[in-house]
Every structure is written in C-alpha cells, then in structure tokens.
Design goal:
- This protein is an alpha/beta fold.
- It has three domains: about 250 residues, Rossmann fold, CATH 3.40.50.620; about 140 residues, Glutamyl-trna Synthetase, Domain 2 (Glutamyl-tRNA Synthetase, domain 2), CATH 1.10.1160; about 120 residues, Ribosomal Protein L25, Chain P (Beta Barrel), CATH 2.40.240.10.
- Helices cover about 25% and strands about 25% of the residues.
- The protein contains twelve helices and 27 strands.
- The strands form seven sheets. It has a seven-stranded mixed beta sheet, with helices on one face. A seven-stranded mixed beta sheet has the order 21-18-19-20-14-17-22, with no helix packed on it. Strands 4-5-6-7 form a four-stranded antiparallel beta sheet.
- Strand 19 and strand 20 form a beta hairpin.
- Helix 7 packs across helix 8 and helix 11 crosses helix 12.
- The chain is elongated.
- The two termini are about 15 Å apart.
- The N terminus is likely disordered.
- The chain binds adenosine-5'-triphosphate (ATP) and magnesium ion.
Length: about 550
C-alpha cells in the first residue's frame, strides 16, 4: 500500500492557481452533511480537507446542513454533527441550514419557469423512469413538456399550496432528453412531500431535489470551491446549468475527489443506521462503529484522526485504505501521551510462599522505558498476586518462556519468581500457582547473578481495582466487496469480548475518556457511557503491536 505523506494535492493546486491568477481573492469552502445519521471517518476526510484548505488560504468554511429531505432528518443528528466537527478541532465560520434557503430556491424555480427552462410534469414516477431512456438510448420528451409559462406557474403554485398529493406532480428542468448525460434529461427539481420538516415544520409541502438545491446553496453562500465525492462527477454539467440558468451572482466550482473506504468497514450512513436499528451495535457511538462518536468512545483522539486524514491524501482514484493505518496513528499519538499501568485481564492467583504474610512493599516502576522524563510510579506488591492465565502452562511447548513448573521468570518491576507447584480444582482448571521469590533479584538493584527469558506482568491480589475490559475485533468480517452479499451477513459474531480482571491502584482516579497503555495489552480508554466510580470499564483502543508499516517518503 502506498501512502503519500504530503500536504500538496490536486485540489490545493487548483485553489493556488485561482488565487494567483486573481479568480478569487478569498476562498470559501463548506462541509455539507445531510443530517440523516452520525458522521463517520469518511466525513472526517472531507472535514479535514475543507477546513484545512480554507485555513491555509485564510479563507472561510461553512458548516451547512443539507436538510432538503424532510423524512430522514432529525435534530439529534444535527447536534451530533456539530459536536463531532468541533471535537475534530474545527470551528465553522458560519452555520447554515439549506432549509433556510427554501424561499430563495422557490423564487429561482419560478425564474426557470418564466424562462421556459422548467415545467410541471404529471407523469408517474414509473413513466418518468421509462421516458428517461438508457445509457444507450435517448430519452423521450414528456407530453407535458410544452405547457405554457402561465399554466406552469399556476400548477407550481398549486403544488406549493398543497393542492396535490405526494407524487402527483413534479417540477422538471427543461434541458435535453437526448443528452448523452442522463442527468441532463429533464431532471426533477421539485417534488411534493406532505411531511413535517425538522426545521420548517409544515410550511412547505414541496421540496427541492439535491441536484437543484445543492448548487444554489453553494452559490447563495458564495462558496468558491465546492468539494464533493466522485459519484457527483456526472452531475457537474447539471450543477453548472443550475447556477447559470438560475442567474446566481456567484459561480462556485465543483471539484470531485475519491471517497475514503477502509478495509473491514462499512461506511455509508444508511448501512450504519441499519446496524443501529437492528441492534447489532450499542448505538451510533458503539466503539466498533467507524463513526466519529464511535471512534471517540473507543478512545481515538482528534489528533490521530486528523493525522490519518492528512496521510491518506486526496486523489481522484478510488482506493481502499488498510484499517491498520488508522491504528498506526492512534498508537503514534498515545505512545507519548498515555500513562503506563499494569492490568490483568484473565486473572490467575499467584502465591509467593516465601514472602512474609501481611507485608506490603511499594515498588518503584518506570512509566516509560523509552522516556526517562516519564518518571516512576509506586505499585503495591505482596504475597498474593494475579497474573494472566496464559502466562502459566502446565505442559509448555518449546520456546515458551513464561511460567511453568520449575521455571523462573521476572515479574515486571519486582522480583524473579520460580514456580514450584500449582493447584487444580475438581474440573481440572488451574486455580493457583505457588512460587518462591529471590529477594536478591529485586528490580533496579542491578542484580546480574543470572538471567531469565520471560518477563510477565501482575497486579497485587488485595490492593488492585476490579475492572471490565472490552476487547474489540472488526465488526465486518469479510472484506469482499461482493455487493451481492448483504453486509449484515458479514457481521463478525465475536467482534467484542468482555473480560473481568484487575488494574493497578494507580488507576483509582481514572476518569471517563482517560487513556492508558496497559503493559503488554495495548491502549485502553475509560468508557464514557458504562464506566462508573465502582465499575471501571475499559475499551481496548488498539493492541500494542502492528504488522503495519507506514512508508515515509
Ligand atoms: P453516506 O453515503 O455515508 O450517507 P453521504 O455522502 O451521503 O455519505 P453527506 O452527509 O451527504 O453523506 O456527506 C457530507 C459530505 O461528506 C459530502 O461532501 C460528502 O462528499 C462527504 N463524504 C461522505 N462520505 C465520504 C467518504 N467516505 N469519504 C470522503 N468524503 C465523504
Ligand atoms: Mg447522502
């Protein structure tokens, strides 16, 4: 996989030359989400691109809700989108709603009618589809195409006044039914919908179609560069036609780029909403979701998401980015930020039989072996500890260097311990390991007498804090872009494992959204929804190791 770490891209080149040759003095971009779901990491790519481009050229960026579809939109989504954009670190210069322009759009539609560039059509939706033709065959003109201006004005007003039912009539642009571009074959620009709108209530029962509304919204706001994803490339001639024929003062330029796709990830709001509605996940902010809210709850930082978006670059070729690349950026960010701690996720009791009963030592453990400035912390140590179940084996294979009968290991930051015995319950499960420690081997005393091959982590059995750990795997199993197979059939049945273990006492003041690097386990975030004072819940953000290498150029 190739990743360009470069701040230059083809859109920036266009903007640079537009400024240099005087086409624009100041640029204005916009991020135009439809409030029909929560934002996802694909939107983050668009947000970073639009806001950073404007910042770089000292321009402005608007946050505009593209709320022209009354049935799917919701104020919950509006609020979540605002929160997510701000969390990513961006502040819009203006906050707009496309629905605020309904009056203006209506006037422009009347202008088109008066110019004989739009007409009211009575064909049914099926008929309109048939008349449209195909890629190979031209379309057929609607029998209503040559209505007089007066009749069109009257009918359009009646549409607006609610005299017709949904679907009974539409307003269409009069362009060219024989155009090679199907989008230009008299596209629908207004439809009837007797639905309540989250912003305008029941003021309107006709709503502008996206292809009509979007260019007008951009032009009204004086957007200079209207950046969108590649699927709108074929709509660009229509975009330009609307701006021109509606006689807008300002002429925005539409520029398309490739949308972000990530391996093992579904990215459309429609699909993400299905996961929420079908209760496959615990809401839009489930830590397995690629939503901004999900990534935040998982423990991703805005810095990591922004750095990822910058690194993937902006191009016109569609591609799929390895999910490991996103993980790379959170590891990179948290490596310097996250305090270190020890935690045992699957506890097994370890008793040090020659350690004095009742005694507790506070051991000084370095926070970050790679960073002297990270300091040290005190960790309680006594006769009874917990270690990971998988750090002991009764019959180990070759090259297993952790605990087994007769073997000696280092307890991280403590002493060497040697296993002498173990206890099994009636079912054959190992319940307790008995070891002896060697006081000479205390960590930090410079002991060189002998070496051990394994170092394992531990927590004190009495003086530690119970915690729940949630370990995540990709939500979507297969990365086959087999469109035939419904993505709900590709859900990973074990995308979350819940473990009950213990963390060291240094985490007693852990607050929601605090992040830690747990020795040998990875980076964890204190879950903002379920973690409570007496019930610590930790989401694993990412494990420590990665096979992923970012090629820096
Ligand atoms: P979805 O299919 O997920 O609903 P959308 O494009 O319909 O996405 P909008 O709310 O209309 O969602 O998108 C707002 C902006 O975000 C648009 O400019 C769109 O081009 C951009 N965007 C959406 N998805 C991606 C993506 N995967 N990569 C880059 N930009 C995206
Ligand atoms: Mg959409």
């Amino acid at each position: 996989m190739s990743t360009e770490i470069t701040s230059s891209n083809f859109i920036k080149n266009i903007v640079t030359s537009d400024i240099e040759n005087g086409k624009h003095k100041k640029i204005i971009t916009r991020f135009p989400p439809e409030p029909n779901g929560y934002l996802h990491i694909g939107h983050a790519k668009s947000i970073v691109l639009n806001f950073e481009l404007a910042d770089e050229f000292k321009g402005n960026t608007n946050l505009r809700f593209d709320d022209t579809n009354p049935t799917k939109e919701d104020t919950e989504y509006v609020e979540s989108i605002k929160e997510d954009v701000q969390w990513l670190g961006f502040n819009w210069d203006n906050l707009y709603f496309a629905s605020d322009y309904f009056e203006e759009m209506y006037k422009r539609a009347i202008l088109l009618i008066k110019k004989e560039k739009a007409y009211v059509c009575d064909l049914t939706p099926e008929e309109i589809r048939t008349y449209r033709g195909t890629l190979k065959e031209p379309g057929t003109e609607s029998p209503y195409r040559n209505r007089s201006v007066e009749e069109n004005l009257q009918l359009f007003e009646k549409m607006k006044n609610g005299d017709f039912k949904d679907g009974e009539k539409v307003l269409r642009a009069k362009i060219d039914m024989k155009s090679a571009n199907i989008n230009m074959r008299d596209p629908i620009i207004y439809r009837i919908s007797h639905a309540e709108h989250h912003n305008t209530g029941t003021n309107w029962c006709i709503y502008p179609m996206y292809d009509f509304a979007h260019p007008l919204e951009d032009a009204i706001e004086g957007i200079t560069h209207s950046i969108c994803t590649l699927e709108f490339e074929d709509h660009r001639p229509l975009y330009d036609w609307i701006v021109r024929e509606c006689e807008m003062e300002s002429t925005p330029q539409q520029i398309e780029f490739a949308r972000l796709n990530i391996t093992n990830t579904v990215m459309s709001k429609r699909k993400l909403k299905l996961l929420v509605d079908e209760k496959v996940v615990d809401g839009w902010d489930d830590p397995r979701m690629p939503t901004i809210a999900g990534l935040r709850r998982r423990g991703y930082t805005p810095e990591a998401v922004r750095n990822f978006c910058r690194a993937i670059g902006v191009a016109r070729a569609n591609s799929v980015v390895d999910a490991a690349m996103l993980e790379h950026f959170i590891r990179e960010d948290l490596n310097t930020k996250a305090p270190r701690a020890m935690a045992v996720l699957k506890p097994l009791k370890l008793v040090i039989t020659n350690y004095p009963e009742g005694e507790v030592e506070m051991l000084e453990i370095e926070n970050n072996p790679d960073d002297e400035n990270a300091g040290k912390r005190l960790v309680p140590f006594s006769r009874e500890l917990y270690i990971e179940q998988e750090d002991f084996m009764e019959n180990p294979p070759k090259k297993y260097f952790r605990l087994f009968p007769g073997n000696e290991v280092r307890l991280k930051g403590a002493y060497f311990v040697k296993c002498n015995n173990f206890i099994k319950d009636d079912n054959g499960n190992i319940t307790e390991i008995h070891c002896t420690y060697d006081p000479e081997t205390k960590s930090g005393t410079g002991f060189t007498g002998r070496k051990v091959k394994g170092t394992i982590h531990w927590v004190d059995a009495k003086d530690s804090i119970p915690a729940e750990f949630r370990i995540y795997e990709p939500l979507i199993l297969d990365n086959d872009t087999d469109e035939e197979k419904h993505f709900l059939e590709q859900i990973n049945p074990s995308s979350m494992e819940v473990l009950k273990g213990f963390v060291e006492t240094n985490m007693k003041n852990a607050k929601i959204q605090d992040k830690y690097q747990l020795f040998r386990h990875g980076y964890f975030n204190v879950d903002p929804k379920d973690s409570k004072d007496n019930n610590l819940v930790l989401n694993r953000i990412v494990s420590l190791k990665s096979s992923f290498k970012l090629d820096k150029k």
